[in-house]
TrEMBL record:
Keywords: Oxidoreductase. This is Sarcosine dehydrogenase alpha subunit. SUPFAM superfamilies: FAD/NAD(P)-binding domain. It holds the Pfam family Pyr_redox_2. Residues 546-603 form the SoxA A3 domain. Residues 125-361 form the FAD/NAD(P)-binding domain. It comes from Vulcanisaeta moutnovskia (strain 768-28). One of its GO terms (molecular function) is oxidoreductase activity. The keyword Oxidoreductase applies.
Length: 605
C-alpha cells in the first residue's frame, strides 16, 4: 500500500461528490477553475491560484476569492498588457482596484517554512531520478551488479502511475501488484529518498530539497539516470477552462483511494495508458466513454479490449464546444473534416468529468542539461535525442522509460536492463558480449512490438543515412489539441481561439499567443493555407520563437514553470503553421525544478 492518506477522504472529494467542481479560481481573471491534478509537481499550479496543498486534510485557502471586474478584463488580458496604451495611461488610477480584485493569498496565508534547514550530502555511484517502473527496474539491475544506487522520488511513495493501475499489462501481470512487489524489493536493497524533489543543476552543485522544506540535498554521483516518466497535460478546446477537466492519474487516485464517484466520464486519448485509465474507471462502476481525434484507437495492445468492454467511443472526432450546466459538462463533438469525410457527424454528450489522458515525456531535466530535444511523433512528441541504451551523449547521463519516449511497459523493463548492462560493461562488471546480446534482444523486441519504435531510435543514433543528422519532421498531429484535425478543422478551430486556454496559471489563451505572433511579426499576415506560388516565401518565413512569445504574453511564467503549457503550445503552433518544433524551440528550462523557499537554500549555505 502507498504511503498516502488512502483511508482519509480529502476535503476536495467531499466537494466533488456534492457537485462542486469549481473549487479554485484563476490567477488573472478570478474565473472558476477546477481541481486538475494531484501530483507533487503541480503544487505550483495550486499556488498560482492562491491555494496550497489541496491534497492535505487542511488546505490553506485564500480568505477573499474574487474576480477582476468585467470592465477591466479586456485590459488585463495577456495580449493587451503591457502594450495597451489606455491601460498604461490609466494604470496609476486603477492599479489598486485591479490588485485588490486578484485572487492572491495574503502573506499570513502563505505556507510555513522551517526556520532552519539541514543539509544532507548524498554520495553514490548511480543517481536515479524517478521511482516509477523505469527507475525501479534499472535500480534492480544495477544493484545486482554491486553498484551503489540512490533513487530520488518526488512523491511520498514508489511505483509511479502503475501503483493505481489494476489492469493486466503484457508480460507483467496486474500493474499494481507487479509494481508493489518490485517497490518492496528495491526499498529493502537500495537507498530510496521519497518526498524529495530533484531541483537540477547549478554550476558547482546538484541540488534537491524535501517537500516539507526542512532538508537541502546535494548530490555527488558517477552516473545519472533520468526516469521521470510522462506528464498528462490539459486538453485544448473551446471552453477548456471548465472546472470539470481532470488528468487521468489524478482521476484514478480520486476514485480508487478517496471515494470520488462521478456517474459518467469521457476519457480523452486512446493510447495504451488512456485505454487502461478507462478500464480502471469501469472497474469502479463508472460509465465511461472514450474519445480521440485520431483515425483509429491508437493502442495496439488494448484495442480489442475496448470493444469487448462495450465502451462507447468518439474516435475521429473533435471537441468543438463545451459548456458547464446543472446536468454536467455538455460537450459538442464533430467528426474530422477533409476530403475523406463523406458526411458531417455531430454529437452531444453530457459527462460529470472530462479526463485528459494525453501525455508527454517529461523533458525538464534533459533540457536543463542542454541535451538535444527533438520531435519524434512515434514515441510521444518532444523527446530527448538518445540511443538504444538511453545515453544522452553527455558522458554520464541517461534517460529511460517514458521520459525518453512513450513505450509499452514490457519494453521499458527490457530497456532498463540494457541501460544497466551498458554501465556495467563500462565499469568492467559484465562482459561486452553479455551487453551486446541483451542489446540485440532488446532491438528485436522493439521491431516485433512496433517497428517504428526501432526506426526512430536508430535515426537518433545514426542520423540520416548514417550522417548523424536527425531529420525532424513537421507536426502532423497535436494530440492535446482536441479541436483540430485537418486543415479545415484548424481554420474552424482558430475562430474560437479566445476560448481555448493554453496557460492556466496566467490565463493565456491561444488567441493571446496568435496575437503576440502577429505583433512580433509587425502585423504581417500569416496564412494557414498556403496558396500555389507562395510555398518558397512561406518556407523562408521565420516565426518568433517560444522565448519571445513567453516574454510578450507571460506563457509559462506561472509557478508551475510551464509544465502544463510549453510543450502544448509548441506542438500546436507547429501544427498550425506547419513548421518544425525546433523552429519555435522551447524557452530555457531553468533551475530549480520546483520553487525552493529562500530559508531552505540559506540553511544549505
Amino acid at each position: 500500500m502507498p504511503i498516502w492518506p488512502v483511508n482519509k477522504r480529502p476535503w476536495i472529494v467531499e466537494e466533488l461528490n456534492h457537485g462542486n467542481y469549481g473549487v479554485m479560481r484563476s490567477s488573472r481573471y478570478g474565473e472558476t477553475r477546477g481541481f486538475m491534478c494531484c501530483e507533487w509537481w503541480c503544487e505550483g499550479y495550486w499556488a498560482s491560484s492562491g491555494y496550497y496543498n489541496l491534497c492535505n486534510d487542511k488546505p490553506v485557502m485564500p480568505s477573499r476569492p474574487s474576480s477582476v471586474p468585467s470592465i477591466f478584463r479586456g485590459l488585463a488580458s495577456p495580449s493587451s498588457f503591457p502594450r495597451n496604451r489606455l491601460l498604461i495611461s490609466l494604470w496609476s488610477l486603477i492599479r489598486n482596484t485591479v490588485r485588490n480584485s486578484l485572487n492572491r493569498s495574503s502573506i499570513n496565508e502563505l505556507p510555513s517554512v522551517p526556520e532552519g534547514a539541514s543539509r544532507v550530502n548524498i554520495n553514490t555511484d548511480i543517481l536515479i531520478i524517478g521511482g516509477g517502473l523505469a527507475g525501479l527496474s534499472v535500480a534492480e539491475e544495477l544493484n545486482k551488479l554491486g553498484l551503489k544506487v540512490v533513487i530520488v522520488e518526488g512523491e511520498h511513495y514508489l511505483g509511479g502511475h502503475l501503483i493505481i493501475d489494476d489492469t493486466e499489462i503484457k508480460d507483467l501481470g496486474c500493474g499494481s501488484e507487479f509494481i508493489g512487489k518490485l517497490s518492496k524489493e528495491i526499498s529493502d536493497s537500495v537507498t530510496v529518498l521519497t518526498g524529495v524533489i530533484f531541483d537540477g543543476f547549478l554550476e558547482d552543485a546538484v541540488i534537491g530539497h524535501s517537500r516539507d522544506f526542512s532538508r537541502l540535498y546535494t548530490f555527488n554521483y558517477k552516473y545519472l539516470i533520468l526516469a521521470q516518466g510522462f506528464r498528462e497535460v490539459p486538453l485544448i478546446f473551446p471552453g477548456n477552462n471548465t472546472p470539470r477537466m481532470i488528468t487521468g492519474l489524478t482521476m484514478l487516485k480520486l476514485t480508487k483511494w478517496w471515494g470520488f464517484k462521478p456517474r459518467r466520464v469521457l476519457v480523452w486519448g486512446s493510447d495504451d495508458w488512456a485505454v487502461r485509465v478507462a478500464m480502471n474507471l469501469i472497474q469502479t462502476g463508472i460509465e465511461v466513454y472514450l474519445g480521440d481525434n485520431s483515425v483509429t484507437i491508437r493502442s495496439d495492445l488494448y484495442r480489442d479490449r475496448v470493444d469487448a468492454l462495450g465502451i462507447k467511443t468518439f474516435i475521429g472526432m473533435n471537441i468543438v464546444d463545451a459548456k458547464d450546466s446543472s446536468e454536467g459538462l455538455r460537450l459538442v463533438l464533430e467528426n474530422i473534416r477533409g476530403k475523406k469525410a463523406k458526411r458531417q457527424r455531430r454529437e452531444e454528450v453530457v459527462v460529470d468529468v472530462l479526463v485528459s489522458a494525453v501525455r508527454v515525456p517529461v523533458i525538464d531535466l534533459p533540457a536543463q542539461l542542454n541535451a538535444p530535444i527533438v520531435y519524434a511523433p512515434e514515441i510521444g512528441g518532444l523527446v530527448p535525442r538518445r540511443g538504444f541504451t538511453g545515453d544522452l551523449g553527455l558522458g554520464n547521463a541517461y534517460v529511460i522509460g517514458d521520459a525518453g519516449g512513450l513505450l509499452p511497459e514490457h519494453l521499458i523493463v527490457r530497456q532498463a536492463r540494457v541501460t544497466a548492462l551498458s554501465i556495467g560493461a563500462m565499469e568492467d562488471l559484465v562482459t561486452k558480449d553479455a551487453f551486446d546480446k541483451e542489446l540485440v534482444d532488446f532491438k528485436r523486441d522493439l521491431v516485433t512490438t512496433n517497428s517504428s519504435y526501432y526506426n526512430v531510435i536508430l535515426r537518433f543514433e545514426q542520423g540520416l543515412q548514417g550522417s548523424g543528422y536527425y531529420a525532424e519532421p513537421n507536426v502532423v498531429h497535436a494530440p492535446m489539441w482536441a479541436t483540430a484535425g485537418s486543415i479545415e478543422d484548424v481554420e474552424n478551430a482558430l475562430k474560437s481561439a479566445n476560448r481555448q486556454y493554453l496557460c492556466f496559471c496566467e490565463d493565456v489563451t491561444l488567441n493571446d499567443v496568435l496575437r503576440s505572433i502577429n505583433v512580433l511579426m509587425h502585423g504581417k499576415e500569416i496564412k494557414v493555407r498556403v496558396l500555389h506560388g507562395e510555398e518558397e516565401e512561406y518556407k523562408s518565413l521565420r516565426l518568433p520563437g517560444m522565448e519571445r512569445i513567453k516574454r510578450v504574453v507571460g506563457l509559462g511564467t506561472g509557478p508551475c514553470q510551464g509544465k502544463l503549457c510549453l510543450i502544448n503550445t509548441n506542438l500546436i503552433l507547429s501544427f498550425i503553421y506547419q513548421k518544425k518544433p525546433s523552429e519555435f524551440g522551447l524557452p530555457r528550462i531553468r533551475f530549480p525544478e520546483a520553487s525552493i523557499p529562500m530559508a531552505t537554500l540559506a540553511g544549505g549555505e
